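Materials and Methods. Structural model of GNAT family N-acetyltransferase. The 182-residue sequence of GNAT family N-acetyltransferase from Streptomyces pseudovenezuelae was retrieved and submitted for structure prediction as follows.
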Amino acid sequence: MIPISGEKRMRIRAVEEKDLPELARIDAEAFPSAPYPYFVLRQYFDICGDHLFVVEDDEPRLYGYVLASPPHHTLSWIISLGVTPELRRNGLGRRLMVAMLHRLQSEGAQQILLTVEPDNGSAILLYRSLGFVAYGTPDPDYFGRGEPRLLMTLSLRTAPPARGTPPSAPSASPSAGRRGGP
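The predicted structure was written out as C-alpha cells:
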C-alpha cells in the first residue's frame, strides 16, 4: 500500500473486468474533453489487460491507471496515463509509470515510446524525470488537424533497476500513446 496525504492508503494492481466502469469514470475525469468511449476501454482490456494497471484505495475506489502495449520486437508504447484530478501531484502517476516500466522491462522491452500534449508541462516534467527524452519537435497534427503531440522515448538498460526507481537513463537513440499525462 502507498500512503497518500496521510489519509488514504493506495495500491497498484492489474485491472480486472469488474473495474471497467470505474476505469471509464477515471478516464472521463482525467480527460474530460476527450475520454475514451467505453467500448475502446473494453477492447484495450481484452487486448492489453496484462498491461493495464490501476491504483485503488481500501474502499476500494480507483484513482488512476496506466495502459501500455505489450513489447513487440523490444518496443512498447505507453498508451495512456490518467489520474483523477483530486489526487494529482501525489506521486500516483509516477508510481504507475514506474510499475509499468518495470513490467515492460521484465518482458524484454528496450525502448518505450509515448506522446504527450506539448502544453502539458507537468506530464512532460514527469516523463523527463523518468528518463524520457523528446524526439524532435511537436507534431502539430499528430492526432489529426489541430491535435499536437510531442513524441518522447526512453531506452531501457538490460540490467534490472532497483525497485521504485526508473529503469533507465535517457538514450540518444531516436524513435517515438495517447494523451500521456496526469
